[in-house]
Write a structure and sequence with these properties.
five-stranded antiparallel β-sheet, seven-stranded mixed β-sheet, Rossmann fold, 11 helices, binds guanosine-5'-triphosphate, binds magnesium ion, 18 strands, single chain, alpha/beta, Elongation Factor Tu (Ef-tu), domain 3, 2 domains
């Protein structure tokens, strides 16, 4: 995977999309694939033309019934997204797939009724020390204010939910956001990257207040930042970003981003957070304690495909796996008869198989 590293600077990442039933995980996957150019047009659940949920059963039930896996590139780095079904019947699949991902995006609606389901998911992530972001989806039809929703969701998380964006509202419609770390305002554009705008004058006070709350939450784990806040010293931007990244990796905080998967809003900001803040495979290897193994891969799921036979989706943690190599699971030996990259239902022959890669072994 040396080439992926050279272009973007990071080893390939594996990111799980989890969250309560029907919160918009498969729609978010579609939106990410569209924004990163892996597909030319964003499909929708309503039109039954998304990359994920392409099986007849998933389309008929309008819900995910198995993992959806798709790979894409963003700013030179490779990402494999594993979209997990939200329905409780498929929890086992989701739980197994989480093991070897670098981080999870928890997709959630701003809805009090989702708190119990959210709590179960967050508890699992916390217990397994998997760094996670919360993506507050469906902001296009949110009714309450985000600052009122967060305290409602907070009991679901033992870690502080750290709001990273505040919405800009116009006639009760969310038209954009302010990024609290960058202190920049953006206006949403449908299925296109948001556009930077001047900070709306009436938001200045709210922005200062929300940014200060974010910094206070970070300062609970950084004494130097706490001192700067107490002395009214503006912390350097790099320090804020370093803390955001470190505290996510250490499992101290759960950052919260906003958006609308359906309209393609908030996607780029989320991807940039993954790029700068999500752990890489080296940290995942450390978390799993497999650093001493010369070559080690974790099976996330085994599929039986109609034409390709049995395919095992794996995350390569250490070493490199070559086509035709002999591999061992306990005392059982097998031979890799092909390496594939997954794009929804489509296994494509080939793909890197060094540390970080998420590929299917035939
Ligand atoms: N208004 C609005 N609707 C959305 C958004 N994202 C998803 N939806 C709708 O929410 C419903 C569920 O979307 P999915 O993407 O299937 O949700 P999911 O979380 O993958 O569902 P499961 O995998 O079955 O748990 C669909 O009707 C989507 O069109 C959004 O940002 N805004
Ligand atoms: Mg789904």
């Amino acid at each position: 995977m040396a080439d992926a590293k050279d272009k973007g600077g990071h080893s390939p990442r594996c990111i799980a999309l989890v969250g309560p039933y029907l919160s918009g995980k498969t729609t978010l996957l579609e939106s990410i694939l569209a924004r990163t150019g892996a597909i030319t047009r964003q499909g929708s659940m309503g039109d039954k033309n998304t990359v994920g949920d392409a099986s007849r059963e998933a389309r008929d039930h309008a819900m995910s019934v198995e993992l959806n896996v798709a790979q894409t590139e963003f700013l030179g780095d490779t990402y494999t997204f594993v979209d997990c079904p939200g329905s409780v019947e498929f929890q086992f699949d989701a739980s197994a797939a989480l093991t070897a991902c670098d981080a999870a995006i928890v997709v959630c609606e701003p809805d009090v009724k989702k708190v119990p389901a959210l709590q179960l998911i967050l508890k699992q992530l916390e217990d397994r020390r998997i760094p996670h972001f919360l993506f507050l989806n469906k902001i296009d039809k949110a009714e309450g204010r985000v600052r009122d929703i967060l305290p409602i969701l907070q009991p679901a998380s033992t870690k502080p939910l750290v709001l990273r964006q505040i919405p800009i509202w116009e006639n009760e419609i969310s038209t954009g956001f302010v990024d609290l770390a960058l202190e920049r305002a953006y206006v949403y554009r449908e299925h296109a990257p948001s556009e930077i705008i001047e900070m709306p004058g009436d938001l200045t006070d709210r922005e200062k207040e929300a940014r200060f709350s974010m910094l206070e939450q970070l300062a609970d784990y950084d004494d130097e930042l706490m001192e700067q806040l107490l002395e009214d010293v503006e912390p350097p931007r790099d320090k804020v970003f370093d803390d955001l990244s470190k505290e996510l990796k250490d499992g101290d905080i759960c950052p919260v981003f906003l958006g609308s998967a359906e309209n393609g809003n908030g996607i780029l900001r989320l991807l940039k957070a993954l790029r700068h803040e999500a752990p890489t495979v080296a940290q995942t290897v450390e978390r799993l304690g497999v650093g001493d193994a010369p070559s080690c891969a974790q099976v996330l799921k085994t599929f039986h495909t109609e034409h390709g036979g049995k395919l095992s989706l794996v995350r390569v943690l250490t070493g490199t796996f070559a086509d035709s190599a002999n591999i061992y699971a306990g005392d059982r030996a097998a031979r890799i008869s092909g390496i594939f990259t997954l794009m929804g239902q489509e296994p494509v022959k080939g793909g890197g198989s060094g540390p970080g890669a998420t590929v299917a072994f035939g």
